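Q: What would this chain look like folded?
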Amino acid sequence: MRQSIMTQDTEGALDTKGALSTTGAFQRLPSGHRARSFGKAQSLNPQSMELSFLGLAVVPLIALLTLLLAGLLAQPLSAQANTFGEVIDVRVVNLEVVVTEKGERVRGLQPDDFLLRVDGTEVPIEYFTEVTGGVANMEKKDAAGTLPALAPGERVGTSYLVFIDEFFSIQVDRNRVLQAMMEQLPLLNPEDRMAVVAYNGNQVEMLTSWSQSTEELEDVFRKAQGRPAFGLQRRAERRIFELTDDDRTGLNLAQSTSELSTVVESTISLEEQQQADLIANQVKRVVLAASSALRSFANPPGRKAMLLLSGGWPHNPTEWVINDPQRTVYVGGAENYDRLYAPLTETANRLSYTLYPVDVPGLGGSVLDTEDFTVEQAGLRRNQLFNREQEEELALSSLARDTGGRAALDAGSLNAFASAVEDTRSYYWLGFTPTWQGDDSAHRVEVKMRRKGLKVRAREGFSDLSRQTEVTMMVESSLLFGDPPSAAPLRVEVGEGKKSGFGKVIVPLRIAIPVGALTFLQQEGKWIADTELRVAVLDDGGNTSDIPVIPLGIRVSEEPTDDDFTVYDTTMKVRKRPHDMVVSLYDKLSGKILSSKVHFDPSQDNRRKP
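A: My prediction, written as C-alpha cells:
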C-alpha cells in the first residue's frame, strides 16, 4: 500500500508544503488470517493544508517497511472518562435569543413573534421556551439532542466554563480579572455550575471540573492567580520586532505623524510577514486550546456559556503588525478573523455555547512608558497602541457577535462575570432541527422580529461538520488536554530515533491494531473493515502539525476473533525534542475510536529496556 497526503511535520513553523508518504504493511494474524490493505490513497489539497509560520522549513514524513514485532509497548490509559471518545451527535440547533426595546429586555413574546431563517429560507421553530430570571415560564415539548426538557416554573441552571489565557496575558492583568470574578462568585444560583481551565501555550490544564461550591471555586481562583503567565514574553517579541525593523514604513518611531499620513503602500516587508505569521500561529494555538476545552465540557445541563479570558488576540495579524491605517496592503492567503477563529466559533455554535470574551488587559492595554521616546515619538506610539487595542477588541467583539454573547471590554472586564450572569438569566430558547448532511458546510442563521422596534441578539450560524472533521477535532483536542481520545486501547510503540539532518531524527512508529475490536462486513468472500488512521503530534514548544487522515482498509479471509491483531509500521521525521503524540484509529462502520497517547523524546532511546 502506498498513500500520499499533503501535510506538515511537527516543526511548528512551516512556509512551504510537505508530503507524507506511507508505505505500510500488516503482520500476519496469529490465527493464520492474512490482513492486507485495500482502497485508494486520499489526497488533500496542499493549498488548504498550508500553514505559514516563522523561520522553519517543512520536512517530509517517510514510512518504512514492516518491522518485526518486539516488545510492543502498551500505553496506559486515563481512567477518567471524557467526551473525546465520542463523535458528538447534535440533532437540534439551539438559539439563545435576547430581545430588547430601547435597551430594555422584552418579556412575554410568543413563537409567532419570531422569524427564523436558515440560509435565507424560513424554517419552523420546533422548540420554544422563555426563561426569565433563570426560571422557565412557558410550556414546550420534549426535544431530542441537547435541548433540555423543561417544565413551567422549573429553574434553569447555567454551566459557566472559564478559559484562562496564560499565553498572551500578563500576570498582573490576569490576576485583576480573576480577583474580580472570584468576588462575584456569590452570584451563582444553586442550580448553576462552573468549570475552570487554563492554557499556558503548550497544554490545557483543568483547574476544576464542574463545581457548584462557591468555596471550592474561590480556592481555584486563588490558586490560578499564583500560576505563571507568559504575556511579557509576547510583549518582548513585539518589542524586539519593532526595534530591529525601524526602516518599516508606518512603524518607524523616528518619523512624524505628518510624514506617515501621506504613505500608502501595497507590499509588506519580509520582516512584517514573518511577524504576522508568528502571531497567527500563536493565535491558532490558543483558538485550538479554547475549542478543545469546549469539546471536553460538551454536554453539561442547562444553558452553556464560556467566559473567554483573552490576553490580547488580534482580529487580523497582518493589520496588527502593520499598525498603520494609512497603508493599504494586500497579502494573498493571509490569515484573517474568519480563518483564524472559525474552529472556535464553529465548535461553540455546534455545542450551543455562548461566548463571553473578556478583555484581560482592559484599560491597561494603552499604558505607555514614555521615557524611551521623544514627545513626538510618544504621540505616535500612543496612536499605535490604540490601533492595536482596537484590533484586539474587534476580535473579542466578533467572537461574541458570532455566538450570541457579549464582550467585556476595557473597564468592563472587571464586571465580566456579573454581566454574563445577568445576560444568561433571561432569554428565549428557540430550537430547530436542520437537515444534516455532514458535508462541513457553514449555514447562516437569522432571527428577526415581526414587530418593528425590537432588537434581537443570537448566534449567527452553525456548521454541518462531517464525521471525518469531528474525529480530527477530537484527536486535536486530546493532544492539549492530556487524555487519550477514548478508553478503547490502541497499542503503540515508538522506536529509537536515527539522525537525519541537523537537529532532526527519523522515529519508527509501530501500531498494533486489535482487529477483533473492529466491525467487518463480508463482501465477495472476504471480511472487510474500513478505518482511518490519524497521528497528531505536539512538541514541547506547543507546536502542532496538521493531522493527515490515512485510509486503512483491512481485508481478511475469515471473520476475525477477539484475540486477532495486525501491525502497521511507519516513521516520522521530527525535531530532536520531546513530543506528545496521539494515535487514533477510527472505525467508520461502528463509529468506535481506538487510541493511545504517547510521550517520546527523540534524543532518548524510546525502546523498552530488557
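Confidence is low (pLDDT under 50) at residues 1-85, 140-147, 247-264, 365-382.
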